[in-house]
Amino acid sequence: MTDRSIKAVHAAYRDDIADLITRRPVPGPAVDQVDPFLFLNHHGPQTYRPGNNGLPFGPHPHRGFETVTFILEGSLAHMDTGGHESIIHAGGVQWMTAGSGLIHAELSPPEFKRDGGDMEILQLWVNLPSKLKMTTPRYTGVQADGIPSIPAGESAILHLVSGEYEGKTGPVDSLTGVFMSMVSLPAGARVALPAPKDRSVFFYVVRGHVSMGEASAKAFDLVEFAHDGEAVTVSSSDGAFLLFGHADPIGEPVVAHGPFVMNTAQEIRDAIADYQAGKFNRAPENA
User: Helix, strand, or coil here: 56?
Assistant: First the structure.
């Protein structure tokens, strides 16, 4: 398999939310999206003191896309107006299809606010095509022990969230065939990751430093690849941790306004009107 060439390396920029350290590589000054991947926030890493206020993501609406949340450190409580509720701990993932619209909250559990501790979370927004934007909302919460950890390349481990790899299937059944994983690279590891033809491919360096041939990327960099080749070969001399995914590009207009992502401005106005009319159902209580 031939390696893909690198289209660009996008450094995340700081955009803190109150006392929550936040970095965002996409959208950024040089990239609007890596179709269909719209948005990536990296919260933390940071340590909360005992008696803290926790995460600030109280009840808010979404329509037209999916949110995928990776809990790297700490715990995250989820509740939404579709009736889904869970607490996911470090190493787990939440995958929510907002679809036609719901209201959800992502908050720190009471124990975390009482005791404090380490916190690090990634949240990725994945677009939906027009034919699925009004699909019925759904939610999957998976703890760390439900995510297959698969040996890959030379000493690497691929933690498979959705899609297939080496005969294993991830626990999330993506509506649009998204492949999503986390990749652990110990010092000296090297792996050729799959990059199927015509799919949009990216990885984000959560920790460490990696090399791809003569190119390199460091923590908080998102690497966007051209649509050539069938693999992404990456190595790390000192160790690294990546978010790695690929998906079919949608190629449709994107009109985004706050928590809504649709195809037209009229659809955004409709989403706001439906939310204001209470059509997203009762909001969850703010814990």
Answer: coil
**Amino acid 282: pLDDT:** 57
- Residue 2's pLDDT band, with cuts at 50, 70 and 90, is very high
- Other Cβ atoms less than 10 A from the Cβ of 118: the count is 14
Indicate the DSSP class of residue 25.
Answer: E
pLDDT tens per residue, range 238-284 = 999 999 999 999 999 999 999 999 999 999 999 999 999 999 975 44
Q: CA dihedral in degrees (99, 102, 107, 110; nearest 10)?
A: -130
Q: Do 168 and 148 contact (CB within 8 A), yes or no?
A: yes
- Strands 156-162, 179-185: pairing is antiparallel
- Report d(CA 24, CA 191) in Å as an integer: 26
Give the Cβ contact number of residue 283 at 10 Å. 19
Per DSSP, the three-state class of 266 is helix
Tokens encoding 98: 């907002």
